[in-house]
């Protein structure tokens, strides 16, 4: 196995926005896993009563908590937009370089929009 | 199991030793897509309802979660999101972690954490809905 030739790796390619949008789908997916765990923690705290819930709300209201919420907005905005793009790919569309670049930018912008929207609400 | 030409003379054991296909990739792929497609409208609805209602206090949060039009989509979303997340993270682990023992431990942890979280979330929503 180890003796097989490898395909050229990252360093031989000129940077293109599609590279960023590709790895960000993975990064935002992993981040959302963590955020989904936090959401469950929030639900559990709520089910435990006012005191526990107040504690969680205090953490969420701290600067770190707010930053996590803003990151969550960014991850959702990006992953969902780019996820729809994945589904469009699966249907066999959107592979020309022009469309691919444009879709990458749209996903990135939706990530920023998501983060900005949450930031506007919590700060 | 479909036998394509080149694998005709390979025994299943030989294919497994060579780390050939386990013939389960398509199911994984379809599940990842289906969970995404069903979760999407649910999450859009939940987000919209959350913002429209506003959950700034214990009472409003509790009322929001326990209303059937939120509790039921929430329960479904918990199942779908954690299925989707576990399927997704499995691929990430398989791509980057190559030491057999570490890989197995992480793959097991991934399923365990996702399942526990889904059930904990379901437990919390039901508890809030039934007021115990
Ligand atoms: C909180 C909810 C979500 C979580 C935790 C999550 C998590 C993940 C993770 C960890 C991956 C694997 C990424 C990789 O293999 O590189 C993934 C992939 C994917 N996600 Fe999500 N996701 C969520 C919501 C969504 C939604 C709503 C959609 C619908 C548009 C979606 C569409 C996709 C698609 C199509 C893939 C497959 C991409 C591929 O094959 O590389 N996800 N997700």
How would you explain this protein's 3D organization?
The complex is a heterodimer of chains A (123) and B (132). With 123 residues, chain A is mainly α. Chain A has four helices and no strands. Chain A has helices at residues 17-48, 50-61, 63-90, 97-122. Chain B has helices spanning 12-17, 25-53, 58-66, 68-96, 100-130. In chain B, helix 2 (25-53) crosses helix 4 and helix 4 runs antiparallel to helix 5. Chain B is mainly α and 132 residues long. Chain B has five helices and no strands. Chain B is elongated, with a radius of gyration of 20 Å. Chain A binds chain B through residues 1, 26, 29-30, 32-33, 36-37, 39-40, 43-44, 46-47, 50, 53-54, 76, 80, 83-84, 86-87, 90, and chain B through 19, 33, 36-37, 40, 43, 58, 61-62, 65, 78, 81-82, 85, 88-89, 92, 113-114, 117-118, 120-121, 123-125, 127-128. The complex binds protoporphyrin IX containing FE.
Write the layout of secondary structure elements.
The complex is a heterodimer of chains A (123) and B (132).
Chain A lengths: L16 H32 L1 H12 L1 H28 L6 H26 L1
Helix pairs in contact in A: 1-2, 1-3, 1-4, 2-3, 3-4
Chain B lengths: L11 H6 L7 H29 L4 H9 L1 H29 L3 H31 L2
Helix pairs in contact in B: 2-4, 4-5
The complex binds protoporphyrin IX containing FE (HEM).
CATH C-level class of chain B: Mainly Alpha
Q: Helix segment count of chain B?
A: 5
Order of helices and strands of chain B: HHHHH
Distance between the termini of chain A: 53 Å
**Main beta-sheet strand count, sense and barrel state of chain A:** none
Q: Write out the CATH superfamily name of chain B.
A: Fumarate reductase/succinate dehydrogenase, transmembrane subunit
Q: Estimate what percentage of residues of chain B fall within beta strands.
A: under 5%
CATH topology of chain B: 3 helical TM bundles of succinate and fumarate reductases
| Main β sheet profile of chain B | none
- Total separate domains of chain B: 1
**What is the helix tally of chain A?**
4
Overall body shape of chain A: elongated
Rg from alpha-carbon coordinates of chain B: 20 Å
- Please mark out the parts of chain B with pLDDT under 50 across 5 or more consecutive residues, or reply none: none
Associated small molecules: protoporphyrin IX containing FE
User: How are helices and strands ordered from N to C of chain A?
Assistant: HHHH
Tell me the total number of β-strands of chain B: 0
Arithmetic mean of pLDDT of chain A: 95
Mean pLDDT value of chain B: 91
